[in-house]
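LOG
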Amino acid sequence: MIASVSIVTYPRDELRWAFGRMGMDRPDLAKTPGLTFKRLVGTAKGTSFAWKPDLLRWGLVAAWESEDALDAFLHESPIVQRWHEHASEVWTVRMVPVKSAGAWGGSNPFPAQPPPPGDGPFAVITRATLRMRRTRAFYAAVPPIDLDLDRNPGLLASVGFGESPLGRQGTLSVWESERAMKEFAYGTDAHREAIRRRTQEQWYAEELFARFRPTGSTGTLGGSDPLASLLGS
């Protein structure tokens, strides 16, 4: 089993076309061999986790039965062909889930597996369905976390994403090492406080937290491949 995240950025004159593909790509995704989990998502602007939608950048979070299934999608799918015809950037990272807890849509799509040998970069996906009465508290906690992200030299990339404008939010962060990821998760006041309040105040009706070892990446995000120097992409 392998997971992937693709981030697709469009030029401004493709805005209407890109927005429409969120619905129109679903039939082709449903017919994709080896695809065990799929979520088409919108993204937040820049590297922030705060939900300020970027209508020119969209994503696909997926899980696959095998590397071969993912390779076939990336090389043969009409969805990916359309990405490259219309987008200004496409970046895809493939990852092995090494720790995963919680649920997304009622089940955990990323069962943990033995990590690849040796050291390497780390990635984290968080995803939550917010309780409506806790929405304000959740969004108020994000700006201090963003500040800590900006200050962290071990962060390679970060993207906030959502399945809907409000209420079903997620994040992808990519780190140069497991140590850098843990220093942010447990060594910064804002994030530790958010973890405490999340549990104590029951912010989420459903949540997932998954760690991954990236094993490959292609394309660019913001002009470069964040993992190129570590994975030889």
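LOG (cont.) second protein
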Amino acid sequence: MAQLKRILAGAMALCMAGAVFTACGDKTSDDSKSGGDAGKTTLKDVEPAKAEDLVNTGKKYNIYVWNTEFKERFEKYYWDQRDEALWDGVEVNWVTNPNDDNNYQTKLDEAIKGQNDAADDDKIDMFLVEADYAMKYVNSDAPLDVIGEVGLTKDDLANQYKYTQDVMTDSSGTLKGVSWQATPGLFMYNAEYAKQVLGTDDPAEVQAAVADWDKFAETAQKMKDAGIFMVSGFDDTYRCFSNNVSAPWVTDGKITIDPQISAWVEQTKDYTDKGFNNKTSLWDENWTAGQKIDGKVFGYFYSTWGIPFCLLPNTLDDPEGEQAEGNGGYGKWRACAGPQSYFWGGTWICGAYGSDNIAITRDIMLKLTCDTATMKSITENEQDYTNNKAAIKELIDGGYTNPFLGGQDHLSLLSEAADKIDLSNKVSAYDQGCNEEFQGAMKDYFLGNATYDEALATFKTNITTKYGDLTMD
């Protein structure tokens, strides 16, 4: 009943504090300014909310998202197994705002700010967040306590990867969100080019050729000599560096550039000058075109979602046609660990403070993030790496193969990578903006249109304009 009492008492008022909000009246969260302590806490012992005590009075269930990914998972893997009694007379409503230029966060923040005064059927019931800005919401009262207010237990959550819980755990040990996916990354490479240049497409042998950044550069030179770009553009290796930093972008309101970020700049400038990349930018047409089997790009660094949502459809001659050998690059890509372990992205589900349908939130979280059979089915059918160690182990032990990757078992590689992910003191509330603005500012430097210092000055101007409460030397 803790959530209901909190709403009825009216003790919580959502407010904005610069770019980071807190849902506790005038209280300012120090953790949100410093980046928090993701990965440094364990879940505190708290009595799980009892299912029979959860609120379930609303007639409309509002879910805030930025694309259709969760909607597709929801409709295909949750809806048929939903608790129909909970949903009797309740309509699901998807509120979609694109993620570009912080648009999703802006719209969500406006809705959260008005949550107390909203009509019951207009209240947010569930919202999604990404790793790059999750701490902004974790260190506020906007998301419900997954255990104490939604009612999941530690046993329910036991099979999830620890890092997926770390990123959504506040400094007091309260879990604020859960995910159906884990997002370790691999190096996806064009098997035809591997055979042409390296004499083999065997993942173990290709891994030996890209095992560290020195070997990666040696192989890049061989690819260039054969008229093939090692990677497509400026941003391709970025997550290998940005997710291995030693400190977050922002600490105590001050922006710092980690040595790993500086290493990415140095490498990318070198690759651009040597012709190892095609000078493309993430998501642009030329970047996407390189994923065709004859696209003249050897490989892409992709997280787990990259296969079903990007690489697979981008490689096909006919995206609406049969997914089988003969349709473009289907079956002609492979995966290896690459020179540096990393992760990229991830999506978390949060129950919203003020929701009048918390019982439904519990049902969704249980079935879409904790149920081993459901998680196994999602991985089998969608090529998504689900956040359930037991499901992944069952698939590997059962001889799982990926037809898009020519029958390769890439789950074993992903499992090894997932266990290495450590988010200790690496996440801040400002990561999306910092990553996007820094990558954008550096392009003129890579292209020779500005010096590094000039590009850095552009970044400083843009980021302090976006986040007026931050400083940078």
